[in-house]
# Entry
Amino acid sequence: MSDIFGKIKSGAGKIAREADNAIDSKRIEMQIGSIKNQIDDLYRKLGQLTYDSSVKKELENPEVAGVIAKVTELKQLIASKEEEIKNIKEDKVVSQAPQASQAPVPTKKFCANCGKENEANSKFCVECGAKMG
# Structure
């Protein structure tokens, strides 16, 4: 009888971990989206500064260099957030490792067009929209 309760408790713990991982992944993905919006705003500012510098025939504009540095910093932040998501997903894959008698089922595939990682059952790439093979 206690074995049944142990299995129930173990299963509930596994489900809770998976839910926490999914929530963490979505939270980080939302942060990445916000950072990408900041980069888009900086690109617009950079375009305006570049245009203004061109009209004024300025060769170097320190404000342009500052915006470029901020974009670079934000892109590095996105890369670290994507690494966090990857680590969360890898933890999930490890915790769901198949028994020795089961053949592993692929959970991911990569887009031939842009190289973005997608779910194995994806019809289209989440990054570029290309049809997945």
